[in-house]
Amino acid sequence: MPHAFDEMSSADGSVRPAYETLQRWLASVPQEVLDHRRKEAEFIFRRIGITFAVYGEQNSQERLIPFDMVPRIITKDEWATLSKGLEQRVKALNMYIRDVYTKREVLKAGVVPENLVYQNPAFRPEMNGQRVPHDLYVHIAGIDIVRTDPDTFYVLEDNARTPSGVSYMLENREIMLRLFPELFSLHKVAPVDKYGDDLLATLRSLAPHGGHEPNVAILTPGIYNSAYYEHSFLADKLGVDLVEGRDLFVKDAVVYMRTTEGPKRVDVIYRRLDDDFLDPLMFRRDSQLGVPGLMSAYHAGNVTLTNAVGTGVADDKAVYSYMPDIIRFYLGEEPLLPNVPTWRCREPDHLKYVLEHLPELVVKEVHGSGGYGMLVGPASDKAQIEKFRAKLVADPANFIAQPTLALSTCPTMVEKGVAPRHVDLRPFILSGSDKVRIVPGGLTRVAMKEGSLVVNSSQGGGTKDTWVLDA
């Protein structure tokens, strides 16, 4: 496996400037003090209920996502580069989705293969020719970023449906401010607490009609959803109603919420519900989670759904591999944030290379998530590789492959002190009708297990606070 870039320490052992103050602080604080504060952080997280569930596990129960107390530090200049690239990418994603459901110029030009769109299970023919408010589809994006050297950030994945994790970003900062005020006093850290205000301003800007204060609601599948804590957290943060499908109804192509004071019109729905379950009259008839007639109100232009229906056509791992060409096609610009090199197993020559180099590669399902359904070649034995080879040969279009990246490492609190662990970053990009908003930082996910490259919480990964230095 390639040598990982250490974000804190240079190859000669010297500490990089951004981390010098943190390193001195860590050296000055007794280990027992850090251990005590770690236990205190765990107690606080349990008390306020920040847990998640893993679907498909027998005897599944709510888990606490490990929280690491050592912040990840990004310089002001690094963030400036990142934020420009993120804005460019999300702009291209919006243009691509709009085109796919309208003129399809990108398909006519041969930039993206037609079957990658029409055979995509996330493609929604019900959206063909339908205008959405303000021609925006991806209002809330979570773009996963990795780093392998001092100079380059790579996009690993685009999350354009219902990206999660922002509640952890905000709660991590709250915990750090509470437990380590002295460390904050030594740094000038850009705040993230305005995310709630930014999100509410974005959602209100997307309302389909003017003339009155837009009414925003967050639609949740309910308390048994693995991300329910985040749904509840965001509703409280924004000061809006958290609703389930049974709380809403449609009359004359307008959505209303049932309240003790009578029906109340809803203009914008931040839905944390998959397309399939939104409207039993158009999608899954057995859905008890959605709102009958919701799509009629949507098509009539009387409600904004955030994110738009059908955005999944842009965020699978096969489409991801075309994003550099998509950016060039729509914007006439070179991508500011490069992709990780990717082999599309649907293409015979790519498949041949992947099959010949399986022990060296990471192979992922096109529609996979959460770290499931993937092969990490260097960490797998021969039996695992051969079993995966058979799956790959049987259905090559379902997989892409990438080199085994040595994700950058950050100092992390482990049982025996502080040690490097691999990390990624999920910034959140808000696209409103007025402007794009990005709070400095995002959710840093960390592989808590030594040597592991899998940062997903469902696979034992944790999270840490991300500090963008303001100076």
Automatic annotation (TrEMBL):
<dbReference type="InterPro" id="IPR016450">
    <property type="entry name" value="UCP005522"/>
</dbReference>
<protein>
    <recommendedName>
        <fullName>Circularly permuted ATP-grasp type 2 domain-containing protein</fullName>
    </recommendedName>
</protein>
<dbReference type="InterPro" id="IPR025841">
    <property type="entry name" value="CP_ATPgrasp_2"/>
</dbReference>
<feature type="domain" description="Circularly permuted ATP-grasp type 2">
    <location>
        <begin position="71"/>
        <end position="447"/>
    </location>
</feature>
<dbReference type="Pfam" id="PF14403">
    <property type="entry name" value="CP_ATPgrasp_2"/>
</dbReference>
<dbReference type="InterPro" id="IPR051680">
    <property type="entry name" value="ATP-dep_Glu-Cys_Ligase-2"/>
</dbReference>
